[in-house]
Design brief:
The protein has 8 helices and 21 strands. By secondary structure, the protein is of the alpha/beta class. It binds flavin-adenine dinucleotide.
Length: 316
């Protein structure tokens, strides 16, 4: 939305905004806690409040067409997009393209936690969506793996919903989330944080029954004699985000395999002229304000590309 508004402000008059969900706003819609907008608005807002301000502007801007329920399934060289709407498949060719596809969460498999494969292992973002949007509580006795901001926010969220968070387990010697979240989400609720520890094994037949936890040395190996067990019915995995860039890869953009982001000499640029990437798809940001700033730049870059004659006219 920030990229679309900025491109419009820079003189682009024909903008199509595609969103696979039924509502605009992305991940903000499930972030009902406060802490958004301090930099951009100088106010403390919740995620939906922050999104709402952009939605209002986008919906009242002539020249931006919004298409929700529109899943982009393919991107071909030449900026040809195919997207699915219920009951139809549409193809459009863009003269300039800004991708703002966000991130997906790393999974249990990616960090290789051994043990059985019972129900009750969730990614933190999925649990957040279940609680905040669907009104479902995924578990009552929870162990959280990872001390990034999403894991910390969810420790507090589960506690406020009446669940018991047994511990947050972090393999690094220091927490990876913001200091304010350590204080407001863990310390204020007396939730134990084990730094330099990892989950050694998940137990349970049908449902999670518990985990073994151990201290690790500087090489990440379990320290002898440090193992202890925690009973729980839920393990929340919050171990990082991966930028969603499979579509641009289809279109021939060079990708850095280490980070799954476009190889780029400058903010938002890719190896394909006229194809820009912004927000968490370009770089995983802590704050939405940084995503907004970056995306406004991307919208301006797309406008400048078009103004300089980039991209063939539609009917050529
Ligand atoms: C739990 C959590 C807590 C946070 N707390 C804070 C906080 O307190 N303060 C703060 O400033 N920031 C916070 N953030 C960070 C900030 O909110 C996010 O980084 C930011 O909103 C991400 O914006 P984005 O547009 O890059 O990605 P997203 O919000 O993920 O948006 C990507 C959009 O692209 C759509 N999409 C993806 N692929 C396709 C496709 N193929 N076709 C069509 N649509 C597609 C998705 O549906 C989604 O709507 C938090 C983030 C999380 C997850």
């Amino acid at each position: 939305m920030a990229a679309a508004l900025s491109a419009h402000d820079c003189g682009v008059g024909d903008i199509l905004l595609l969103e696979r969900e039924q509502h605009l706003g992305g991940i903000l819609n499930q972030c009902v806690h406060a802490g958004f907008g301090l930099v951009h608005y100088g106010e403390v807002l919740t995620g939906p409040e922050y999104a709402e301000r952009f939605i209002h502007r986008v919906m009242s801007t002539r020249g931006i067409e919004v298409s929700t329920g529109s899943y982009v399934a393919e991107l071909k060289p030449g900026k040809v997009l195919t997207y699915l709407k219920p009951g139809e498949i549409r193809t459009v060719r863009a003269r300039a393209l800004v991708m703002a596809t966000g991130c997906r969460e790393r999974t249990r498999e990616m960090i290789q936690i051994p043990g059985t494969r019972p129900a009750g292992v969730f990614s933190a973002g999925l649990a957040q969506k279940m609680i905040n949007i669907e009104g479902l509580l995924p578990g009552r006795r929870v162990v959280i793996v990872g001390s990034g901001d999403i894991g910390l926010i969810m420790a507090r969220r589960f506690t406020l919903e009446g669940a018991v968070v047994r511990a947050v387990i972090e393999i690094q010697p220091q927490p990876t989330g913001l200091r304010r979240n350590i204080v407001q989400c863990l310390e204020d609720f007396d939730i134990p944080l084990y730094l330099g520890h990892r989950v050694l094994r998940i137990h349970g037949r049908n449902r999670v029954e518990g985990v073994d936890v151990g201290q690790v040395d500087e090489l990440g190996r379990a320290v002898d004699g440090s193992k202890f067990s925690l009973e729980c019915d839920t393990v929340l995995v919050s171990v990082g985000l991966i930028p969603e860039n499979e579509l641009i890869e289809m279109a021939g953009v060079q990708i850095d395999r280490r980070t799954n982001t476009p190889v780029s000499s400058d903010l938002n640029y890719t190896s394909v002229p006229g194809l820009f990437v912004c927000g968490n798809a370009f770089r995983v940001y802590d704050l939405v304000d940084s995503v907004t700033r970056d995306s406004m730049v991307a919208g301006g870059q797309a406008a400048a590309y078009l103004a300089a004659g980039g991209g063939a006219p539609f009917n050529a």
